[in-house]
Amino acid sequence: MSVLKKLAGQTAIYGMSSIVARFLNYLLVPLHTVVFVPQQYGIITEMYAYVAFLIILLTYGMETAYFRFSTKEGQNPKTVFSTVLSSLVGSTSMFILMAIVFAQPIADWLMYPDNKEYVVWFAIIVGLDAVSSIPLARLRSENRAKTFAGINIA
Q1: How many CB atoms lie within 10 A of CB 103?
Q2: Given 7, 16, 17, 153, which residue has the most CB atoms within 10 angstroms?
Q3: 68: confidence class by pLDDT, cuts 50, 70, 90
Q4: How far apart are CA 85 and CA 63, in angstroms?
Q5: Res 1: pLDDT
């Protein structure tokens, strides 16, 4: 019964943190519509749609790999963590660098030639999100649900 109770408690914490984070984002919509002109808000909304796709590419299954190998018999979880994190930091840094170098052509291709800074900002956002996925996965694997939830909401 103890394992089931622990599972239910952690599931509730993870679920609530996800709901609260999304709700806070929802509450920001009226502020964004006042602060940004419609053209800017449209660009930002489109860019966030790309972020959802890019985060999958940038993490390339490393969260799953971390969970699999950090709990595997004979594997050192600290070594697995550092290997996975190093890989993601390297590839994500390359992604951000390429986005900065090619920001104008990317902005032109997206049909926002006057807003190349958005390309740079969103590359940094998605890059940081990708890199942070591994420390967050570590918190989950260490059953630190409250810490995970606090960081996830912040």
Answers
A1: 18
A2: 17
A3: very high
A4: 10
A5: 55
